[in-house]
User: What shape does this take?
Amino acid sequence: MNFCSDNVAGVTPEILAAIETANRDAAARPYGNDAWTKRVEQHLTAIFERPVVAFPVISGTAANALSLSVMTPPYGVVYCHDEAHIAVDECGAPEMYTGGAKLRPISGADGKIPVDALAKVLANSCAGDVHRVQPAALSLTQATEAGTVYKPAEVAALCALAKQHGLKTHMDGSRFANAVAHLNISPAELTWKAGIDVLSFGASKNGALAAEAVVFFDEKLAETFGFRRKRAGHLISKMRFLSAQLDAYLTDGLWLKLARHANSMAQRLVQGLTALPGVKLLYPVEANEIFIQLPVPTVAALREAGFEFYDWPDSEPGTIRLVTAFNTQQTAVDHFIDTARRLSNVAA
Amino acid sequence: MNFCSDNVAGVTPEILAAIETANRDAAARPYGNDAWTKRVEQHLTAIFERPVVAFPVISGTAANALSLSVMTPPYGVVYCHDEAHIAVDECGAPEMYTGGAKLRPISGADGKIPVDALAKVLANSCAGDVHRVQPAALSLTQATEAGTVYKPAEVAALCALAKQHGLKTHMDGSRFANAVAHLNISPAELTWKAGIDVLSFGASKNGALAAEAVVFFDEKLAETFGFRRKRAGHLISKMRFLSAQLDAYLTDGLWLKLARHANSMAQRLVQGLTALPGVKLLYPVEANEIFIQLPVPTVAALREAGFEFYDWPDSEPGTIRLVTAFNTQQTAVDHFIDTARRLSNVAA
Amino acid sequence: MNFCSDNVAGVTPEILAAIETANRDAAARPYGNDAWTKRVEQHLTAIFERPVVAFPVISGTAANALSLSVMTPPYGVVYCHDEAHIAVDECGAPEMYTGGAKLRPISGADGKIPVDALAKVLANSCAGDVHRVQPAALSLTQATEAGTVYKPAEVAALCALAKQHGLKTHMDGSRFANAVAHLNISPAELTWKAGIDVLSFGASKNGALAAEAVVFFDEKLAETFGFRRKRAGHLISKMRFLSAQLDAYLTDGLWLKLARHANSMAQRLVQGLTALPGVKLLYPVEANEIFIQLPVPTVAALREAGFEFYDWPDSEPGTIRLVTAFNTQQTAVDHFIDTARRLSNVAA
Amino acid sequence: MNFCSDNVAGVTPEILAAIETANRDAAARPYGNDAWTKRVEQHLTAIFERPVVAFPVISGTAANALSLSVMTPPYGVVYCHDEAHIAVDECGAPEMYTGGAKLRPISGADGKIPVDALAKVLANSCAGDVHRVQPAALSLTQATEAGTVYKPAEVAALCALAKQHGLKTHMDGSRFANAVAHLNISPAELTWKAGIDVLSFGASKNGALAAEAVVFFDEKLAETFGFRRKRAGHLISKMRFLSAQLDAYLTDGLWLKLARHANSMAQRLVQGLTALPGVKLLYPVEANEIFIQLPVPTVAALREAGFEFYDWPDSEPGTIRLVTAFNTQQTAVDHFIDTARRLSNVAA
Assistant: This one.
């Protein structure tokens, strides 16, 4: 009954089985020159309805930082939401990988960068002035850190603006599956058709052991990626076991099936909780994260009942984050709601 | 029948089973705050007969480059053998992680740095001269890139010299298990008792899926490591699956058992081959790598017979590298020898 | 009649004479092993009433970025005002020199960091959390970018808070002379006695050709500076000519004399202008910079009359910056005021 | 009577006068938007008989490291002579500025890279292999660190080979003037006509106070240079005083006049010394440096007589370096020779 994060969950059986199957071959060519890695690119080409160049890596931070490293010079600026993972939770990985580029955080409701806020920042970017760091890239998080989802038109508007200013565009899709599952549209619509150049396509938070794919829609940007990945220690030798995870993840829509489950558990949970008195939802729940304020005694009692989750920092007392995952059980969700309801009744 | 490298081999069953077992817990704390990661440190403390601080990572390049990042300032020099993996095969990872430190390659027979060669280089290191990069660290590879093994006294002599010059000492133990198995001594003797501060303790080449441990004997050097690992994208969220590999690897001497097998297969192979006419061994075979010159037609015929291995660059024609692994089968070795012998007889 | 910046001014005669004098010696030891460089450190020791370690460099950006490079690890955070030169005007030099550390801009009135704003940011700094960049240094600008001056007690309060959180403290003293001249107190009171560890002591904006001194009150921080300066290409070979500038600058209070003149010209100018109708002063004028809003026609007419100055970006129409320098002539100031007054009368 | 280095000499009167003249203007636009800087580019365009893009900087290390920063990716290799200043004497500046690229030193007689040695290294460069750093640039030193001078055909042969392998080509012309003076040919012949893309054009060692120009023959390479120079703290605000030095240096052939003097003093000195018994010249003297072995008592006695020079490290006893400069006096040279001769006679 752990709602701390989707990274507390383990590995979905299909992916574990794929690793075992990959191990049946006594030998396979290392460093990605194997059949599994080739299949990953084929899956992604099918899913995105166009040729792509893709590189498996083992963490979202690596996917993001390596992506950015080919999108900005060391004197560049990457625009992102001020709660973006790259800005807040990666201990400066983008700065390390880019050789010291600067992140420019932009505030916005519901975890989203407002177009007019980006426009204002870009209007003051001093492009061409040697005293200033130079506009280089835009990074969007999809689903956002607030558990909301950019609509394709929102992505397109931001990317169009970015392109007008010569920016490259990145999507941190650590929870990309949850976003696609929510919108129920073609992944192409949400990415390159909306103007995205590079996608960090997450799997670790959605049932993989440790796997993400960096997907290049702008092939030219991919040219130096292989060297940068190796140089960063992110080219693992027995690559088949990383690619096998992604191969299984992308086969027969497993990635969407897992995300749909996580999303539906979040919906069930938020609907149950918002029916209770004294409850305040911080953001619309569109993916698998719920940011919600409960009565403080309820929060304490839920913990005593064995539920695990994080208090949300910089918020009013009783504000917590609940994350569902591919393996969240409906009984756990219902138990959570029942427990909260019981406490709520007691309090009333 | 693949003798290309120990990284073409898959995962040993005990380690795969450990991953599966780790997956039985529906949830575990992420980022290394889990029971498996704790056990890894406990194993290593037992194996090295002293407290250590240890960090799992997923590749040897990451282990090496992150280790070096805490051992040298950006204006420092790392001394290493001129065939060292860090110097030749990591696409500049040490330079990236150290912020631009310099590697100073030193030549030496059998893949080893000679004490007098190191002494000579250090005597000309211009310590304190602001125009020169400054002596910072020594990195030894154990087993070496030539498939040989430093004796404890050799390690101790090099480390003593290094310490006299204020250097930190690193061991690239990508094949540390093979070295220990060969020497049949306490791992402590070969590392901290001989003056090593930090060890990249390899598992990937010896049956793990993707796992290495950075082991600090000098605890102070470990202080900033956690930040550096995260910043590099090498702190994986579902750490239990990385640590579970190392946990199994270090349990009941599995790591040594696997290495002993690889070493013994190499011995069997080299003994069979050196009994043939026209064969020249480049280096003593002490671990699981054989560098050997065979008649050119024999090499071609072995390939036709389905054996896979690398030609060795910068060598005389017919020079190849053969690597055995934890899962190399005796029948494959014997078949290799028989094939070579048959061709040899034909030729004669 | 140029009020664009103090860097449009040339070299004060005393400093030019010192360069010529230094050139009378046919030879001098290079790289700072000369008499002039030694004297600079002696002057600074006298001025700051305690032993210091000092390094001449040729630009304020170099002084700042090199200072920060010894005050933060690559995963560190440097807190500064959001209009600080290091944050806005150095094209990412701090990020380059620190290996990718992050600047954390803090807003505050009159170009100053408010103590409570710093306290709030530090309270949320997540020290020790590997996912977050780590608190490392505080940088104050004195005089500020708004032309105001921190009082010793303000510096002390900020530094005390910084020290409680383990930060190192830096002062960007590009206009340090103007600040000291304004406060008319001992330089020691404004720096190390108030908790500053490292000072970028400016001279270029105050009559030097190209010269700044990095002054270390925390001697330990200076240990690696020499290597970092050389590595950055900032150790000039004929150092005597850089040090001779500082030697003259620091002799017999020339630095304060020049700054007092610039400050008094600014006072004369601002008093003249604020006596006119329709004028709005943005910040108190405490050093040699004036940020002021004039009627738009007045601004245009002043330009036509041959005066040069910058429009101030992100401000209401008619907002300009006026900077006085060591060589600003009283007649030019009076002419500026007269011209503005005449236009003002015409308008009325 | 100082023969230690050309950087112990001061500033030639013409250049000092130019600084004074530049100071007559009470104001000038900062950061290189001034008439002096424009003239520097015009001079260089005339001297090199083609349009060039040029950037003044204050040190040879800055010129070299900034040049290399636009010629190699962080995972690149820069080939250079193993005694090159960039490899030996810049405390790792190239590694810092390139984000961790690698220098690959190549040995060769008389300070020159032999074509066949470069060819051999490039043949083994493993271009395209992600495990290896990638061939990026060639840097030649002209005049060399051995005081010799590459002939145009030698430069052309090395550059042609470099271009075949896709390398960019850099010339460290810290003593470019001495090389041109020796060859007495068009600077164009020695640079872009021979295949050079970027030149560090030195002035500091030849009579300037602190000034070098980075000259781009490949305009595309210059695109990002302005940002990189600023970011490194090498864009000085009162640029007119830096450019005024170069303006004077390049006017009416002053740079060649000064170099011819230095070269002729070196010729006079070496001819005088090699006429003495027991003297061994290490390299042909083609510029303004002499590497020579004298009898040990002679060396000691010369020092006692007040001459200053460096013992040459890693050489036989009595080996010294003598450097002449733009201001070396013939009487000092003759006195040196006479003193050595007298001692030589005494010894005989």
Observations:
- Chain B touches chain A through 56 residues (CB under 8 Å).
- The radius of gyration of chain B is 21 Å.
- Chain B has two domains: 12-254, 255-347.
- DSSP finds 14 helices and eleven strands in chain B.
